[in-house]
Specification:
This protein is mostly beta strands and 106 residues long. It contains no helices and nine strands. The strands form two sheets. Strands 1-2-9-4-7 form a five-stranded antiparallel sheet, with no helix packed on it. Strands 3-8-5-6 form a four-stranded antiparallel sheet, with no helix packed on it. The protein is globular. Keywords: Metal-binding.
Length: 106
Amino acid sequence: MMIKKAEEAQSVNEARFTKNIIFNEGKSTVFILNFLPGQALPPHPHPNAHVYLYVMEGNGICTIDDEKHDITVKDIIHCENKQVLSIENTGSERLSIYVVLARESS
């Protein structure tokens, strides 16, 4: 068993969003994405995987396959396979998202 403090993975960078990996075991990776206001994660798919996102703090816009959704604290998002995902911090504070990337068996 391993316990880690999420706040230790909530660092930010003035130049771009940060991705801080917490666990990487087998077919699963857990990380926290952190965005300062105005920062964004470009559109991209996750072939052969399910992505689960939990908004820890802040708010913004999550776009899946060109469909925009406002997101805020305690929202949970699921994106699968070849769906194209992007995230933008449209708020005035840090946006932190806990992510589980679960790859499917080949």
